What we know:
Elements: H1 3-18, E1 26-30, E2 33-39, E3 48-62, H2 66-69, E4 70-74, E5 77-79, E6 83-86, E7 91-102, E8 110-115, E9 124-129
Antiparallel strand pairs: 1-2, 2-3, 3-7, 4-5, 4-8, 6-7, 8-9
Amino acid sequence: MGFWRFAAIVALLVSIGVAAWPSATQTSEVQGVTVAVTPGNVEADSQMWDFAVAFEAPGRRLDDEVLDAFVLVGDGVRVKPLAWEGDGPGLLGHRAGVLKFVAILPRPKEIRLELKRRGEKKPRVFTFGFAEWSA
């Protein structure tokens, strides 16, 4: 993903309320599709967690059913997302939004956001440790 295009996606996410999120964005590129994930509200006392997700695939349609493609994993617990607040399927080249999950309580030391995309051999895994945000 080009720097300016990624910067535009980050600017979009900031404009929808993620300015205070930790700068722990992880990216994965497979078969020409880049996915960037940034954890949002994942506080220990939150009942709902969210993640900013941006897809980039120049010249390609992004038809992922986001709610079916992601799962959150922590301490052996697997949680499907409750909501996707963002672009719908079928966009050409870019897609972004916020993925929301019921929090895993008690909060594990580490969580994984897994993305299984049609046509990809194995899931993409984004791993986040809470120690990096603890005061």
